[in-house]
Design goal:
The structure is a homodimer of 666-residue chains.
Chain A lengths: L9 E7 L9 E4 L3 E10 L5 E9 L6 E4 L1 E4 L2 E7 L4 E11 L1 H14 L5 H17 L2 H19 L5 H7 L1 H9 L7 E2 L4 E6 L6 E5 L15 H13 L4 E4 L47 H13 L3 E6 L2 E2 L4 H5 L15 E3 L2 E3 L3 E2 L7 H17 L4 E5 L6 H14 L4 E5 L4 H10 L3 E3 L8 H13 L2 H4 L2 E3 L9 H21 L2 E5 L38 H13 L9 E4 L6 E7 L6 E7 L6 E6 L2 H4 L7 E5 L4 E5 L3 E6 L6 E7 L13
Parallel strand pairs in A: 2-10, 11-12, 11-22, 12-13, 13-18, 18-19, 19-20, 20-21, 21-22
Antiparallel strand pairs in A: 1-3, 3-7, 4-5, 4-8, 6-7, 8-9, 8-10, 14-17, 15-16, 23-24, 24-25, 25-30, 26-29, 27-28, 27-30
Chain lengths: 666, 666
């Protein structure tokens, strides 16, 4: 037992947020707040004081903010995060004898009890505090000591009233508390602070090789640059490119994943590496590294960042296979174990053997790959299949990178089991792919987004919604036609602060699967060059532009907080709202989930959640159709025709003019 | 980075049960099981193996039991606790390359793929395992290696079928796993194992001084001994005595808490200490220490244990005040700060100052008090107001005592705020008083007992239910007459595995409050000697005996597990069941919560929870009235008259004879 252990009477527990008891960080973006709660109590009835302590991780000095009791021994405090990188926080609390004494004095005086000795007890407390104070504070406190001692000597208990009425004394005493026996929570809780794009981003995925103006030609980075105005028009701020590295020749796949390729087949960009180079090289047909850097710079002019794919795997002719055979798993017949998920085989891809005794060199090499592309100006990485590489590796890599580059964002393409997907986020991934593509019904969407935004997940898992990817063409999109694409667009763009589409397949409503019951595209761009007619009259490009414009205009849609579902008496109609914390921006979305039929029903708005006055009308401005409605009270009829407009995206305006606004009404 | 860190691919998290991430122990009684779950997963698709590791805390050697997957990466295992004291447990898991290989081989064979190289891969895995094995196991494994190598050389892939069909190989390989890169959860979780009485006990509280056969006389320990047959008849197994120490003379309270006592007033037993001695002395009018030991021994003959009151506070004339003034808080006027909760004053009681710099000596002294009474044969302590002494003190004291005496039970009289009450249980209290006395409605009881038995609380908080105490005469008992006492008796005895009554006030339905709106007894025994007519015809002693008999007969009532509430369409009727884990004992209780009116309604039994077949009748044996009913299906009519029998306590018998049981039916 340490000498003062037994005198520390305050208990602190249940500190929240805390991911696995503080083992993993929560996530915030710049200038957001961290609200912290804790159970704080002691034996007996003494009053307590508590502070929330926080600091940027690289600073030694703690900043303190007072915590306030919420009732039932729960306390709360909050602090803003004002710089990128890591913060940490903890809680300290102590018994406050002066506040206790002050409260008891008030009760005694109210009960008409004799209090002269009490004044002397108070004088002692103030005197000790005055020794912790300096300057005029110390002098003021000393003066109180003198007054109270005089009151005791003269038996003049009216002083008590004076003490009770004086706010300065309470404030001064709170400034110089006795914290010798304060309890500090034994753990510091980490926070990772990212830039805004970690919270709010709009991604467009595109195969550069399909960007050539002439059908059949191999597109280049220069062709990508020419595509930028089109992408910017639609309102995207990230252009994500599948791997841009040399593609292996050995075991290259043909069109539609054919096991044997013809001489013309370009192969899958994810089969990385050939004699032309590996993960730090550029596929020669796309251009040069300089061309790539030029693309990054050009995109910047359009407010677009380039995101690269990190696919840590090798084609059989990747230079690593010769240079570092110890990074691969060799079979007894002298071949390398290719990727497979029996009975499926991916002969064009060799996975790294992360169980190699040489794992440290491998880890450093892969870190080097990331650093290389950071040097080329890339700050966004979409990580391919992170769940097939060790989870501890990612924690190490992401920490290493973010220590010097806290602005880097890692998006996990973690289409795997939920515990693994969420764990990748704990280990450090900034954003993550989700199961959104497979959530279609009202029940599924409500349950899933409630889980993502109302549980502990909201603290560390940032969902990124993709209605389609080069690998995922859902049956809903295959069969629902243009309305299905519209519905999924609106859902992705308004349920998630970050979403993306794989285009031009998306805006051109490409819906042919490779086979009945398959979720793969027919003639998938993964295995061949496609040419797209971007200016087709049925393209969704203008609707997408409109939706993304709405996202930029409405801060409520730029965060995953503040999502609330509202009942509708038709299972095909989904209604939800998103609000900023201060209530200054409120968006209500109503979607007809059926791409086939017109549906109508009665929405029952939860006015409390919207901050709406049930007695005041609200203006519902459908920013999709630019029509304005006046809604009074909670129940409203809605009707949505899939082929006209399958959704409303209402911006809610609380205040409407009434006769009371006329000057003469006053 | 340690040399193998990067090769440990398995992640273990979400281990349950875990109180505050393992900071505090869960509780069990002897021979109970600890079921442990954890999220266990790794990158990729490899199969994993996991073991639950446990040991008595004083042993270094871990015992392992396999864990099995429950789906969604959740795993489960369990172990029994076979000795008193502390256990700990943790979880270890690893990637299992052989099981992975075996599963893949099956898929390859099913898909008709070429597998000869696979056989060689398997042979390598088996060979390495054979080096970990010895004796015939090693030889058997070596034989497999030989067979598979032969199969490879001869291109004879039919061996694969043999491998797939052989259970011995799988079992042998599971016996010698490669655990070099196993992940062990970084924390060991503690368990406290108590004796059965910690889980199941039936307490009777009684003032010894009120036990004299002649009215007005001061009762003695010998009088208490004469009362034992009466207490045993009612079926109690614990007799709890308020403090038995000398009572202070200074500031002694008079009848009904009068601030000044007359010469005849015996004072409150909680005002401990006088010239006659302190916490290790016996109040002279009760007898001698030898008399007390004789009572302990006599009680044992009746199957009754004596529980003492630990009230760590002093009367002003307690010897400690002279001998250890440093343990008290002195006021500037030279007086000691008496207990108070402004404006209430308890001048007959001085609290210890646990913030004293001499806290270590004080802690040791108080431990000495407990040790003293353990030496006199006491193993049960009811701790008075533990929430007014530091929480860390209790953890230290209880650990110190239980290290040498794991059979000791501490019951916390923690009538305080919920977080503090629960925290005392975390810190080590074996059982705790609850808010039961103030939970009366169906809603209140259902919610409270769901919280106590279906949340994490069930792991460390053992509720002890008291319908009354010397300080608590609820309004329900004041106004509800005999039926109210019966209702509260049945609720306490069947909702809680541990309960107690303060008698004879309870069985004699003492219901006069000191004042309207007060919960204190008129002429409370705390301040005066009472004489009770135990043989009054309206005494509840026989009903209590019956109820306690039912508790002894039905294991389901001896645990707080297995409680389930069933809907009834009348808010005054409460229905719940308790079942043993194996379903061998099921009790259904229906209570009319109104002590005034007859109530009837339809019970909707949740047959699943009871393990009842909806197509088979069940015999419902009301063990309170000894009437048997046949119930078919879920819905049943019940009607309860408060003045006849306000409750059913049904023992459910699943199997009933039908014609199918006749021999000739076969």
């Amino acid at each position: 037992m340490q000498n003062d252990t037994g005198r520390k009477r305050v208990i602190i527990e249940g500190v929240q947020p805390a991911i696995d008891a503080g083992r993993f960080p929560i996530k915030r973006t710049l200038n957001e707040w961290v609200g912290v709660e804790a159970d704080i109590f002691a034996d007996g009835h003494d009053l307590l004081s508590a502070v929330l302590c926080y600091r940027p991780a690289q600073q030694a000095h703690w900043t303190e903010v007072p915590m306030r009791p919420l009732g039932n021994d729960r306390w709360q405090g909050c602090f803003p995060v004002l710089q990128l990188g890591r913060y940490c926080y903890t809680v300290q609390a102590w018994v406050d004898p002066f506040a206790t004494w002050h409260q008891a004095l008030r009760k005694r005086v109210t009960a008409g009890q004799e209090v002269t000795v009490e004044l002397l007890v108070g004088a002692e407390l103030i005197e000790v505090a005055s020794q912790r104070a300096t300057g005029t504070d110390a002098a003021q406190l000393q003066e109180w000591v003198r007054l109270l001692r005089m009151a005791w000597e003269s038996g003049c208990a009216e002083r008590a009233q004076l003490v009770l009425e004086d706010e300065t004394l309470l404030r001064l005493m709170a400034t110089y508390p006795d914290r010798r026996f304060a309890t500090t929570y034994p753990r510091e809780f980490p926070v990772v602070v990212d830039r805004d794009k970690a919270r709010f981003s709009t991604w467009y995925e595109m195969f550069p090789r399909s960007c050539a103006p002439v059908p059949g030609q191999h597109g280049t980075f220069k062709d990508c640059a020419a595509r930028l105005p089109y992408i910017a028009h639609m309102g995207f701020d990230v252009l994500y490119l599948p791997p841009i590295h040399p593609i292996g020749q050995m075991h290259r796949k043909g069109k539609n994943n054919a096991p044997v390729a013809t001489a013309d087949d370009p192969g899958s960009p994810w089969a990385i590496g050939s004699a032309a180079g590996g993960h730090t090289a550029v596929h020669p047909q796309l251009g040069t590294l300089a061309d790539f850097r030029a693309l990054v710079a050009k995109a910047q002019e359009y407010g677009i960042e380039i995101a690269l794919d990190l696919a840590f795997q090798c084609a059989p002719d990747h230079p690593y296979v010769q240079e570092h055979p110890e990074w691969f798993r060799w079979r007894p017949d002298g071949t390398v174990q290719y990727a497979e998920n029996p009975p499926k085989k991916y002969e064009d891809i060799y996975p790294f053997d992360f169980e190699t005794p040489h794992w440290q060199v491998l880890w450093e090499e892969l870190k080097g790959v990331v650093c290389f592309w950071i040097e080329q100006g890339v700050r966004l990485f979409r990580v391919d299949n992170p769940h097939t590489k060790p989870l501890r590796f990612w924690e190490w890599l992401i920490n290493e990178i973010k220590t010097s580059h806290p602005e880097v964002i890692f998006l996990a393409e973690a289409f795997t089991r939920p515990k693994v997907q969420y764990h990748l986020a704990k280990r450090g991934f900034t954003q993550s792919y989700t199961y959104f593509a497979w959530r279609h019904t009202k029940e599924e969407l409500t349950r899933y987004f409630t889980e993502l935004t109302r549980t502990e997940l909201q603290e560390y898992f940032r969902p990124h919604l993709w209605p389609n990817t080069p690998d995922i063409l859902t049956e809903y999109l295959q069969h629902g036609g243009r309305p299905a694409f519209l519905v999924r667009l609106v859902l992705a763009a308004t349920l998630g602060a970050s979403y993306g589409i794989y285009g031009p397949a998306f805006e051109l409503c490409e819906q042919r699967p490779r086979a009945e019951g398959s979720e793969e595209y027919l003639d998938a761009e993964k295995y061949e060059i496609r040419h797209w007619d971007l200016e087709r009259p049925d393209s969704l490009q203008d609707v997408i532009a409109r939706v993304n414009h709405i996202r930029r205009d409405n801060p409520a849609l730029q965060s995953n907080q503040g999502l609330h579902f509202h009942p509708v008496d038709n299972p095909e109609l989904l209604c939800y709202s998103k609000s900023t914390a201060d209530g200054s921006n409120v968006v209500v979305v109503v979607v007809n989930l059926s791409p086939y039929q017109t549906h109508s029903g009665w929405v029952e708005l939860q006015l409390d959640a919207l901050g709406l006055d049930p007695l005041q009308p609200a203006q519902m401005h459908d920013e999709l159709s630019n029509v304005r409605y006046l809604w009074h009270g909670a129940r409203h009829y809605v009707e949505l025709q899939p082929h006209v407009a399958p959704a409303h995206i209402f911006r809610v305006r609380h205040h409407l003019r009434t006769e009371r606004d006329f000057e003469y009404y006053l």
